[in-house]
Amino acid sequence: MRSRSFIYIALATDIIIAVTKFIAAGFTHSSAMVSEGIHSVIDSLSQLLLLWGVAVSKKKADDKRPFGYGKELYFWSFIVSLVIFIMGGCISFYEGLLKIKGPSADGSQSWNYAVLGIAFVFTAVSACASLKAFNRQRLADISFWEAVKRSKDPSTFIILLGDIGDLAGLIVAFAGIYLAHVSGNFYYDGIASMVIGAILIIVSLLLVRESRSLLMGETISKKNLQKIVALAESDPSVVKVKKQLSMYLAPEEILLQLTAIFKDGLTTEQITDSVSNITIAIQKKFPLVKQIFIEPVKDK
What we know:
The protein has helices at residues 5-28, 31-57, 71-101, 110-137, 144-150, 154-183, 187-216, 222-233, 268-285, and strands at 238-250, 253-262, 289-297. It has a 3-stranded mixed β-sheet with strand order 1-2-3. It is built from 9 helices and 3 strands. The chain is mainly alpha-helical. The protein is elongated. Helix 1 (5-28) packs antiparallel against helix 4 and helix 2 (31-57) packs antiparallel against helix 6 (154-183). The protein folds into 2 domains: 5-216, Alpha-lytic protease prodomain-like (Up-down Bundle); 222-297, Cation efflux protein, cytoplasmic domain (Alpha-Beta Plaits), CATH 3.30.70.1350.
């Protein structure tokens, strides 16, 4: 959450790429290039929404939102995943259908090749920046897709998967334009546009699933919960932790509730001191746990 430079890099490159793609499409009338231009515009809009989500999520808690605004990032990530990517995929797919119904190509295709090459380089730079940010959060012993599932910061994997989708779309666009150019059959161009749309839709469905999970509330890992329980039960006043509930309110903010059985005969002051000691111990080892509620219960 401390550095969002990779989002600004992705935004700048996508705006430049979108303009060049539409210029090339205007000269060549390539539907695959139009789809790629739409793809870049959609990516730019998604990055603006993510930046808005990051900004709003940093607002301090108030009377209306006593737990803070951290989930704003999850909400806007869900909107990006659900609306923006799917919208871009459907438009690209429809553009391909129109091209198949009336295939044509005008002008020099060298425009398309030049723009696709430039776009590929810029997108690769953006992908490297987002991958670097993603790997800073990723544990070394887990796979890429497992890291996406475990990530609590949607801005990193949305940008990264968007860049991967961009690179795949550029390859498909190049293949469609090239086949149409060498064969004279411009149906390939329309098919390429439809494939680009399908790629966008597949990426969006994956992002919708992950963003929805974060928005609904994900818990911290079982391994860390076990460590937290062990810390609480190591306090001499605690007999046992009966229940532990946790939820990510933001990528760097966790809400934790423990119900614990305390030893008989303790005074209210002793229990209060014990709760304070447990809270300090947990937050020292797990600094992301910002809010802790410990409820004393009877042993039944």
